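#random but structural
TW: two for the price of one
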Amino acid sequence: MVDRLVHSEINSRRIMQVEQCFGSSGQPLAMPDRVLVGEGILTKMCRKKPKPRQFFLFNDILVYGNIVINKKKYNKQHIIPLETVKLQSIQDDGYFRNGWQIISPSKSFSVYAASSTEKSEWMAHINRCVQDLLTKQGKQQSDVEDSPVWVPDSDARVCMNCHKSEFSVLNRKHHCRKCGAVVCGPCSSQRWLLAEQASKPLRVCLNCYEKLKQGSGGGGEVVAEGKGTANNGNLDSSGDSSDDENEADGLATSDQPTFYGGSATKN
């Protein structure tokens, strides 16, 4: 689909511009045979509310970040290898339309496009890149367990584990990294090493903890709440390392994504 852009000067310039927009906070993106396939704004469902994020689709990775200055500066860069990515369409539900889930072992979340056409183009291009990458590598998609898509905070009034504890300013909401449920502190007091998601033990609900412990024959790493594992900014965040209340929120308006290989829905 984009083979003609490999090693081209225009592709190198595009990738260099993306690197410059992330600045020193981002990882280098220029690699042999890497092509920038497309870019545009999608609305990512974060922990507390939907927020616009800038996405860059390459032929081997998906990159996104927070928008500081549109088309000029981004931060909090996230990189997801495409060979692990699966897509699942989301049915329209009132205000939330044209959405799908991006699912992988390291990170899973929901995104929304501004129109059904944009949704179709994004999904077609991502799926095409995944299939082309696996074909070139002579691989099939891994059967490693995927990370969960987190339940939004707004969907839970009480703990989804004990079904008793009501959330409040003092009784904070937490997310289980194994199932994505919103749970209270006592019901998420244990942590487990989920190697595909992080190198440190992550918060899990008591139900998942018991299942993980049984599955490992009673082994595994137990870390009591507030002990052993420091909060590194990711343990209770949305996967964007912060959920900045000062950021613009809501579903993004159309910014007409650009796909450099042409339309993927007409082929």
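TW: number two ↓
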Amino acid sequence: MKSSMFKSLSLGLLTTAVMSLSVTHAAKQQDENIEVTPIQKVTQQELAAIYVLSEVCPSLVKDDAQFSRGYSKLAQEYLPREKDAVSALSKLSKEKKFKSILAEARTDAKKAGDSKNKEICQELTTYNN
């Protein structure tokens, strides 16, 4: 993950928006018995960037409950097959094979700085609306 976390998350949020539109369109198409293309695979780097938000954002946002709801929604969109995506991300963060990817995401978040991180975190406080 060479680019900053901000770029990764922006791309991720854009991807999420596109996927949401695709899912809505696909649901309409299913009523017409048209084959639906599967959703694009999520990368470990994207999951790491999302998890790092759970570490960085609580100290940067005013409304922790709003952030938690937005974060939960984002996590669920990236891990739709998981019953509790937030718990699944937490469990993934403890896996040995994920440690280096997570470390890189943490480094990217530090490089981005509080200002950029706060901007992303604030967006998540309204993401559930």
